Request: fold
Amino acid sequence: MRKENKQGRITRRGLLTGLLTGWATVSAIPVVSVLLRFLTPTASSAPAVESIELPDYGDIVKDSAKVVRFGKQPAIVIHTPAGQYKAFMARCTHLGCVVKYEGGEEVPRLHCNCHGSIFDLNGKNISGPAPRPLDPLRVNIKGESLVISTATRA
Amino acid sequence: MLINVISWIEERLPVQSIKTFFIKKNVPRHRHSIWYYFGGMTLLFFVVQIVTGILLTFYYTPTPEKAHESVMYIVNEVPYGWLIRSLHAWSANLMIGAMFIHMFSAFLMVAYRKPRELLWVSGALLMFVVLGFGFTGYLLPWDTMAYFATLIGTEVPATMPVIGDWGVSLLKGSEEVGAETLTRMYSIHTVVLPLVSLLLVSFHLGLNQLYGASVPVGTETPRKPIPFFPNFLYRDLLSWTLGLGILIALATILPSGLGEKADPLASAPLGIKPEWYFLPLYQSLRMAPAEVFSLSGDFIVNLLVAIGCSVWLAIPFLDRKASAGRKSLPFMVLGIVLILYLITTILLAYVLP
Reply:
């Protein structure tokens, strides 16, 4: 469609089409922005969990591990063959599956069944597609309980 | 009375032109004609999906507390519930299988050449929609496999720069795979994708009606084409009877199972694998090294998949020789290599531990 006439001036139709296109574009902006805001979940308003207490940590026998809830996420508490307690966030750093403790006769390690990533007992990624170590957690024994807290907390 | 009704309708609807539109289509006959049946076969399973899917929504409850129980209820208590669910699961697999055969045969016969470019584009879009159906439907039974498959699938956009984390939260609807994820998947599976697919299928079939089936480049058509209506439709009916027979046999002899209810604290089960049509992606992710030139392997795999999908969608516009009615060697090689890669990765995923 010609937007200009022979004298190079904007035609009535050209002007109206331009106005209509502009109006449609301007109207679409709030619609799209409301839609995107609506679909994007808001961050949880609950305060982030910084530590949990495990009174029944004695159930975790040597050379085994237990997955517990740390806030909304799973954490893995390990009782190493050497008798130490260690804890990590249990989500594999690759695509988020919960890792599994493998001990017994082999060198103890954490294994992800989804794509085969392997972590050592320091949480370091030693093979497979995992891009970085597991997020470590701090472990303290306080009275009868094992206290697990985020590593950043003093 | 009936005649009155018919003439009443004929006065108000363009019956004659509708009739002409449907009757004018012919189907060519040649040695590759067999491939023409797979589009109709895909359509048959799509219709089965709509019917069985609607039936399942009457009993299914999309919440983490009740989803697994409601599927158990459908399977164990609802009369023929196990059959309807099993038909839905098997028909999904058969639909995807028929769709891939239809798509690759259309590719190898260069059916995407002028004037059928938009047939190809709408078909390729339908493939993405169908894979989306597969992904979103997989979570709904809320068993262990479903939970972890969705956990992994929703993390895939995380490797994208800038919008990755936003993409993940958009899919999950929350920080974790949970109630919000389940309702999102349910809504996409039962409302969004059905609407989109109905539009695309109508467009795809309308164009097919307009242009008819494409004769492969360089193929002789010694015999007279047959009218689609009713001659080819009768043949379609035969193939549909066969398809339905296979579907019912599979659904009754191998009814789909249901795993344990999903437990977010459980470790991922050993040997966890996605459905066969996602195995090429799964196997590629498994084979990719953690890092290549300081880029993550996953990022590279996802980038290649995204580029591959865009190229696939744009094939009719990239293959210049096709519009001149000639086969182009590079595109044939590309298609065959792609088919071989898909088959190899699927087999590898089954064979490797």
User: Anything to note?
Assistant: Chain A has a mean pLDDT of 87.
